[in-house]
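Listing S7. Sequence submitted for prediction.
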Amino acid sequence: MTDFARLLAESWQVFRQAAPFLLFGFFVAGLLKALAPGDLLARHFGGRGLVSVLKGALVGAPLPLCSCGVLPAAMGLRRQGAGAGATAAFMIATPETGVDSLAVTYAMIDPLMTVLRPVAAILTAVFAGLAANLLPERLIPALKVEAACASGCCAGAAAGAAGSGRPGLAARLRAGQGHAYGEMLADIGLWLVLGVLVAGAIAAFVPPTFFLDALGGEFTSMLAMLLVGVPMYVCASSSTPIAASLLLKGLNPGAALVFLLSGPATNATTLTVMARTFGSALTAVYLASIVGCSLGFGFLTNRIYAALGIDIHSVLGTVTEAVPPWLERGSAVVLAALILRALLLAHLARRRAAR
């Protein structure tokens, strides 16, 4: 078998295993989009206390906002009076976790990581929010310019933050599913495919004991994942198959969590836009909180697995073994078709807008 054929075979295996859980995750995301009040974000994030920070983290964690919608939504929240802490907490919790990524984590890694991932994300968001509230207001510039974004998902996020009259339940359910399998999927579709290809390449070409031999140290492996995750653009869903493939090559669970936390919440573009929009002080607090908490929760995760006597490498992906092969293959075909449809519709919408 040629190298290219091995890459395709391993990538298809990863995509097939993730597809049923991704479809379910997007379905739940659509329900959340339909049932959450449109003005939910704008009503609860004012002030500089602990309560507003907790609301920012807890509301952001399951919210079906795609990665492109986080910054515009955060700008809208800040412009409408949200505190710096609540805004920072929202910006961390939203991309780091979500119903779609948790479904894939359960399928491709294990139930314990499915619990630790959102807990660590929410606590990281709360820590960052409380630290941001300590900054003097003069260090955080006021937002005077409306957020610009050509993507429909960004516009939807901003509209959700601003709030409006709500249509009937049936219409909201249709719109929610349309958002999940349309705009949201268009936003992360290519990155999801890229993540699957990276996971396939790791499975095909990285030696089975690479991380035990080359990066065997606990801190060394975590630092390596941090250096990869911070500048890299990877959404929560696409980071999961990459982490699962790295675990199969001997990566410890704490280092995998470091990547799952740092990758989705940080990238070079986000940090640049943040610095220009919210100021360098808040951006520094945001990045330092993610780096410090990721490493801290990584060490704690390794201790939890050791205390419970769980070898993550032996239970990795066992959930997918209970899914019938025909369901995996059918879901993969459906998901691929939905991704192509979403990308095509997004391309046509951009062309119409450009005319």
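Caption to Listing S7: primary sequence and predicted structure tokens for the chain studied. Residues 3-354 form one domain. Confidence is low (pLDDT under 50) at residues 144-164.
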